[in-house]
Amino acid sequence: MLGAAWIPMWFFLNLYLQQVLGYTAFPSGSALLPMTVLIMVGMIVLAPRVLVAIGPKAATVTGMTLLAAGMAWLALIDADGSYAVDVLPASLLAALGMSLAFIPTLGTAISAARPEEGGLASGIVNTSLPGRLRARPGRDDRDRRSQRR
Question: Which candidate, 8, 116, 111, 119, places its Cα nearest to that of 60?
């Protein structure tokens, strides 16, 4: 859910900045840098402190709530909106939510693995992010055979 919400937001924000606000490619990409910086600082500095203070479940719920609020705010932007008033604050709120939700979500997902399988578990988590469509070997063939009957 985290990836399904977050990844398309970057694409649609760029579309809005370029096609509605008239930014060219470089200023549009530069306009997203504050989000990137907040995510990095949030994941490195803020998320570990929040995890210690309130635990992974509360941090994830808080982060997802902030991410949802930021995305809802972005969904309400009009065609005559502005970067400073509409896009920047909403995107920073979403970025804060992302930074708070990602670390505890990843930690929770890989904590059940044995230490020697930590890399494998991390890889599975990263490749299972929504938006990456993959065939299901064996399963798709069985589905087609059952449809022929």
Answer: 111
